[in-house]
Each structure stands twice: as structure tokens, then as C-alpha cells.
User: Which sequence fits this backbone?
């Protein structure tokens, strides 16, 4: 008998093959489900998910913020001010001598010492003595303190003060005119009067040497500095320069010439710090530039004073 093409033997073989194919297909589907989900997952463009129940956008890490700010330059505490170069001849710290003549201004603003100090038991060599207002006020305070601390009620005489160009010509000639410290209106010569009571700078009157800085005065021509000042030492000539400068010169045994040269090593970024009378001052130097003006760094949010040195630059004193 002939075998039908769909006989039971061939049918078993056919079913067997279909079972194998079905198993392979199922295995592939399972593999794709298990391992393929990561391949087809849509990436999160905003980075790792923060399990933040508030739903707020996560903050930037601190190290990234600080790194960003660190790349920014810090704002300057200074402003560049344009200063006329003629101002190098003006101010409390100008040096006046034969090599650095005083540039006389068209007008002066002086006060009469007799009128200002007549109630302070101070004597005068004449009624025509003048000083700048601030120097006159400080001189009065200094003399009153001297009398109060020593118990004396007289003995101080103002012998010399402001000297005009005309008076210099009249008294001492053209070689001196312009070269005297008295031209500035901040210098004064004191004497003990009458002479029998003592000598300025000695004995009871040595008080002025030890205390003048508290009132903004320096001994203009101290002992041992003759070669530097080109002037004989004198215990009675005092110059008003302001308390912080006077204090520093006194404490460091400096004359004005030495102090002005010392200040050249101090800059706006690295100033000289002077602490006196419960105040802190910053002092620095800037050279005068070529041309008509100089760019000077001045603080944005502090009071300051600018003084020329009368030869090559400016001293800036930050006062608060």
C-alpha cells in the first residue's frame, strides 16, 4: 500500500520542528524584554533624577558655584582720580627748602595768632603773626594742654610763624625767599619767655618734644638730622603735619625728609597702616606722571586727603 504524504510519521516530524521554532521565538522575545529595555530607554537630558518630593529643580553643586565666582575679578575699592600736577606743591606734607622752593599761591587763608590765642596765656613777638586755621587751632590746644599739665600759667612765646614772600625778601633776601618752612603757614617757632623760666625743649619745656605729635606737630629740625635736613637742629621749631604722620615720625625717630622717602615703598594695595588715638589710617604714595595731570587711586567709600611732596609725587592719607 502506498504511504500518504501526510502520514503520521511525517506529521510528527513537522510538529516537532514547529515546536523548536516556537521555543526559539519565545526565548528571543524574553531576552529582548529583559535586556533590551535599557537600549531603547529615552535618555534624561537634565541629568540624574533627584528624588525630591517637592519637584523643584535641583541646585547646582557648591563647588561649581564657587568655581564660577572665582573666575570673576573682585571689584576695585579704588577710583582713578585725575589730579592737576600743580597740586604737587600743595598740602600738609610738602617739603620746602633751598632745593624745593615753595610755590606761593595767588591767595592765602591765614588766621591771626594773636586773635586766636590771646585767651591761652601765650605771648607773641608781635601782633602780625599768622598760621593756617587748622594749625592755629592745634597750636592753641597744645599750649593749653602744656599749661594744664605743668601747672604754669605763662612762659610760652610765639616768636615766628607764617612768612610771606615779601617779608622773606625784606628780612633775608632772595636766596631765602621761597626756601623757608615758614612760608607754608604750618610752622611756628616757640620760645620760653622770659628766658629765666627755661628753654623750649629742655626741663619742663621738654613736654613739647614728647607730646607735640598728639596735636599733629613734629619737631621740624631734630638733633642728629642736620645732614639730612640741611638745617641746624632746633628744639623750638614745630611743623603741623596731622596727627597720624606726626605720631609715626615721632615713634620712629624720623625727620620729614626721611618720612617722605619711606612712604615711596607703600602703594594703594599695600599701604602703611598707622593706628593712633583710636583711629586707623592708611597712607601710600603715588608718583607724579608726565603731562598736566596724574591718575591717583583714591578709595571709593572712605574719606581721604591728598598732599604733594613738592618734588615728585603725592601722598594719600585715608582717614576713615
Assistant:
Amino acid at each position: 500500500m502506498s504511504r500518504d504524504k501526510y502520514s503520521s510519521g511525517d506529521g510528527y516530524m513537522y510538529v516537532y520542528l514547529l515546536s523548536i521554532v516556537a521555543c526559539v521565538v519565545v526565548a528571543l522575545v524574553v531576552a529582548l524584554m529583559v535586556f533590551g529595555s535599557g537600549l531603547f530607554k529615552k535618555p534624561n537630558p537634565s541629568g540624574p533624577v533627584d528624588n525630591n518630593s517637592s519637584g523643584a529643580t535641583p541646585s547646582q553643586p557648591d563647588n561649581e558655584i564657587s568655581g564660577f565666582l572665582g573666575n570673576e575679578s573682585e571689584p576695585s575699592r579704588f577710583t582713578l582720580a585725575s589730579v592737576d600736577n600743580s597740586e604737587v606743591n600743595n598740602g600738609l606734607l610738602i617739603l620746602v627748602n633751598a632745593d624745593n622752593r615753595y610755590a606761593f599761591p595767588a591767595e592765602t587763608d591765614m588766621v591771626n595768632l594773636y586773635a586766636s590765642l590771646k585767651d591761652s596765656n601765650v605771648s607773641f613777638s608781635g601782633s602780625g603773626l599768622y598760621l593756617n586755621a587748622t594749625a592755629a587751632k592745634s597750636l592753641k590746644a597744645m599750649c593749653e594742654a602744656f599749661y594744664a599739665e605743668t601747672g604754669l600759667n605763662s612762659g610760652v612765646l610765639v616768636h615766628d610763624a607764617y612768612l610771606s614772600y615779601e617779608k622773606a625778601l625784606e628780612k633775608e633776601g632772595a636766596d631765602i625767599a621761597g626756601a623757608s618752612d615758614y612760608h607754608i603757614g604750618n610752622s611756628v617757632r616757640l620760645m620760653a619767655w622770659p628766658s629765666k623760666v627755661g628753654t623750649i625743649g629742655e626741663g619742663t619745656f621738654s613736654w613739647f618734644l614728647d607730646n607735640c605729635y598728639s596735636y599733629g606737630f613734629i619737631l621740624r629740625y631734630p638733633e642728629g638730622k642736620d645732614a639730612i635736613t640741611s638745617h641746624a637742629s632746633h628744639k623750638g621749631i614745630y611743623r603741623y603735619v596731622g596727627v597720624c604722620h606726626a605720631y609715626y615720625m615721632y615713634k620712629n625717630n624720623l625727620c620729614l625728609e626721611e618720612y617722605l622717602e619711606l612712604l615711596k615703598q607703600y602703594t594703594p594695595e599695600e599701604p602703611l597702616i598707622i593706628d593712633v588715638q583710636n583711629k586707623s589710617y592708611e597712607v601710600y604714595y603715588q608718583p607724579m606722571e608726565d603731562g598736566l595731570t596724574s591718575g591717583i587711586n583714591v578709595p571709593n567709600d572712605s574719606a581721604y586727603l591728598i598732599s604733594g611732596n613738592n618734588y615728585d609725587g603725592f601722598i594719600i592719607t585715608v582717614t576713615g
In short: Confidence is low (pLDDT under 50) at residues 1-15, 34-71. The two ends are 127 Å apart (CA to CA). The longest strand covers residues 279-287. The first helix runs from residue 8 to 35.
